[in-house]
Automatic annotation (TrEMBL):
<feature type="domain" description="RNA polymerase sigma-70 region 2">
    <location>
        <begin position="28"/>
        <end position="94"/>
    </location>
</feature>
<comment type="similarity">
    <text>Belongs to the sigma-70 factor family. ECF subfamily.</text>
</comment>
<protein>
    <submittedName>
        <fullName>Sigma-70 family RNA polymerase sigma factor</fullName>
    </submittedName>
</protein>
<dbReference type="InterPro" id="IPR013325">
    <property type="entry name" value="RNA_pol_sigma_r2"/>
</dbReference>
<dbReference type="InterPro" id="IPR036388">
    <property type="entry name" value="WH-like_DNA-bd_sf"/>
</dbReference>
<dbReference type="InterPro" id="IPR007627">
    <property type="entry name" value="RNA_pol_sigma70_r2"/>
</dbReference>
<keyword id="KW-0804">Transcription</keyword>
<dbReference type="InterPro" id="IPR013324">
    <property type="entry name" value="RNA_pol_sigma_r3/r4-like"/>
</dbReference>
<feature type="region of interest" description="Disordered">
    <location>
        <begin position="172"/>
        <end position="192"/>
    </location>
</feature>
<dbReference type="Pfam" id="PF04542">
    <property type="entry name" value="Sigma70_r2"/>
</dbReference>
<keyword id="KW-0805">Transcription regulation</keyword>
<dbReference type="InterPro" id="IPR039425">
    <property type="entry name" value="RNA_pol_sigma-70-like"/>
</dbReference>
<keyword id="KW-0731">Sigma factor</keyword>
<dbReference type="InterPro" id="IPR014284">
    <property type="entry name" value="RNA_pol_sigma-70_dom"/>
</dbReference>
Amino acid sequence: MPKDVPPRWDRRMQQRLARGEAAALGELYDRFASLVHSLAHRVLGDETAADRITREVFGYIWQNPDAYDPKQGSLRSWVARITQGHAVARLRQAELGRGSREELEQKVRRATAAARADYIVTSMPAPLRAALELAYFKRRDYRQAAADLRISEDEARRRLRLGLQLLSTANVLPQEDSAPPGYGPPGYGTPR
């Protein structure tokens, strides 16, 4: 299945979920379960907790399909936001009492930024991702990346610059309570 989900598919999927079609939930799970699990694992660092969050997220979606608003973004982004909200809430709950509030919030910010970076990389178009992977994992400069990708050096520079600009947004945290309604579990974005 293609990574870029057309908005029409998103609306149709929401309608199917709202009608209670179990097959729709299965299709949504097949498409987004690995995204949900990897984001949860990135925040929590625990396989069992990530499995639990995956079940919770799809349970939330099944019970609240009308919470998705196509005007606010793609279904994929909504699912990622719900996952992040659930995982951060679980991290806060697990870390409660293990240090100061500032230490906890710093850990939450680091985990959230790492999860956002993972999501950004997996969501970016394949040409940008390929250029970044060459630069990061294989330590290629833009000239070597251009040769490996069989593109011009200018195009390689453009792809790397754009990919890095997208990644730089991973450290930008949303303001408190800035998530639109339905884009996270109850209490998402509020201080604990």
